[in-house]
């Protein structure tokens, strides 16, 4: 529970909120108000004292739970899914990414519309309201469905163009590798170190929402297409997963996945397990993978002395003991340590790429 709450705090701050209080409850059964009577009273007392703008729950609430809790507290209540979608909305930079987030927000909103509502009052700014709330979109079920249909039609056109681009990439016969990993594991920092792409690599969750691809020269000749993608996190609902469909397409197209792990994180094994489980759930459990053990500069001062003792002290990553995982490379993306060895390992796994002169233009 504590790890999840720490992430929720981080998510809230990524959405521009300041956390003024936390209440914990262990429950093993469904309750109409999400929390029990005692915790509900405790929460009411905390709200009276702190006067926050919103209450955030660390699970996806059912529409009934959300309405009941808002009624009992007389406060706006959002859940983890709404918060993640809000952060997505802040970081979506491409038109496709923005439309995909808006689609996910509307699909999330639809079952939460109360039958007697004829319209949604302007919600104003703040977390949990980016997208549909800010533009005062019609919210009766018929109009929301119409908006969903329109976005889907626009996305279909975008995806047709994306498919044409992917087909050109396939014809070019340039091998493709994609970075995956837990959010904030250092994927974008590694991507920049390898490609000089200048992708934002701030200390924020989901800072990379839209996939970015660059060409790299491989050590033994030839080229590689390397993609950076959105990070995974625990408790990803299907609604959230659908919001980064472009990332999923990149993962399926890749010849090799580079699973980046922040080995200094106290929950590195659990984070690796979340990533591996998510890949399996997405039908990618058999996709070839190479482990990239990142942030070694925080464990040693000398890149040439990653000693047996240092490696022996690393946490056991039992979750990645899969036949699809065929090796690991220890690096520091921030310091640039061991990146040539990483590219050599990638080339060994994907095979020698075609020389640039023999590739098609993509």
Provide an overview of this structure:
It comes from Geodia barretti (Barrett's horny sponge). It holds the Pfam family GTP-bdg_M. Keywords: Coiled coil, Cytoplasm, GTP-binding, Magnesium, Metal-binding, Nucleotide-binding. Mg(2+) binds at residues 188, 208. The protein has 362 residues and is α/β, with parallel strands linked by helices. The chain folds into 2 domains: 2-83, Rossmann fold; 173-358, P-loop containing nucleotide triphosphate hydrolases (Rossmann fold). It contains 12 helices and 8 strands. The chain has helices at 2-14, 37-50, 63-73, 80-91, 95-109, 141-172, 187-195, 238-242, 245-253, 268-281, 308-312, 339-350, and strands at 55-57, 77-79, 176-181, 212-217, 223-228, 256-262, 289-294, 325-330. Strands 4-5-3-6-7-8 form a 6-stranded mixed sheet, sandwiched between helices. A two-stranded parallel ribbon has the order 1-2. Helix 10 links the parallel strand 6 (256-262) and strand 7 (289-294). Helix 4 runs antiparallel to helix 5 (95-109) and helix 5 (95-109) packs antiparallel against helix 6. 35% of the residues are buried.
């Amino acid at each position: 529970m504590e790890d999840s709450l720490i992430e929720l705090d981080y998510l809230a701050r990524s959405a521009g909120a300041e956390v003024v209080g936390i209440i914990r409850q262990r429950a093993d059964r469904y309750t109409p108000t999400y929390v029990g009577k005692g915790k509900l009273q405790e929460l009411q007392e905390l709200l009276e004292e702190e006067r926050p703008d919103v209450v955030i729950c660390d699970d996806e609430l059912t529409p009934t739970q959300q309405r009941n809790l808002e009624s009992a507290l007389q406060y706006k209540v959002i859940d983890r899914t709404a918060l993640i979608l809000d952060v997505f909305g802040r970081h979506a930079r491409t038109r496709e990414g923005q439309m995909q987030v808006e689609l996910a927000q509307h699909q999330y909103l639809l079952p939460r519309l109360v039958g007697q509502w004829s319209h949604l009052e302007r919600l104003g700014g703040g977390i949990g309201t980016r997208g549909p709330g800010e533009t005062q979109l019609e919210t009766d079920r018929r109009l929301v469905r119409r908006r969903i249909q329109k976005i889907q039609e626009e996305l279909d056109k975008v995806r047709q163009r994306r498919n044409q681009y992917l087909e050109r990439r396939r014809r070019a016969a340039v091998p493709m590798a994609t970075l995956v990993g837990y959010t904030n594991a250092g994927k974008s920092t590694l991507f920049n170190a390898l490609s000089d792409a200048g992708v934002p690599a701030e200390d924020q969750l989901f800072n990379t929402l839209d996939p970015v691809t660059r060409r790299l020269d491989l050590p033994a000749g030839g080229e590689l297409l390397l993609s950076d993608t959105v990070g995974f996190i625990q408790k990803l609902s299907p609604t959230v997963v659908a919001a980064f469909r472009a990332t999923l397409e990149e993962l399926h197209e890749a010849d090799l996945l580079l699973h980046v792990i922040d080995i200094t994180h106290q929950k590195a094994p659990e984070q690796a397990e979340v990533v591996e489980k998510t890949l399996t759930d997405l039908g990618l459990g058999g996709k070839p993978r190479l482990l990239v053990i990142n942030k070694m500069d925080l464990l040693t001062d000398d890149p040439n002395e990653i000693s047996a003792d240092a490696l022996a002290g690393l946490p056991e990553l039992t979750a990645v003991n899969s036949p699809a995982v065929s090796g690991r490379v220890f690096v520091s993306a921030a310091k640039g340590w061991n990146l040539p060895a990483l590219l050599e390992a990638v080339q060994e796994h994907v095979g020698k790429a075609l020389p640039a002169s023999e590739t098609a233009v993509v």
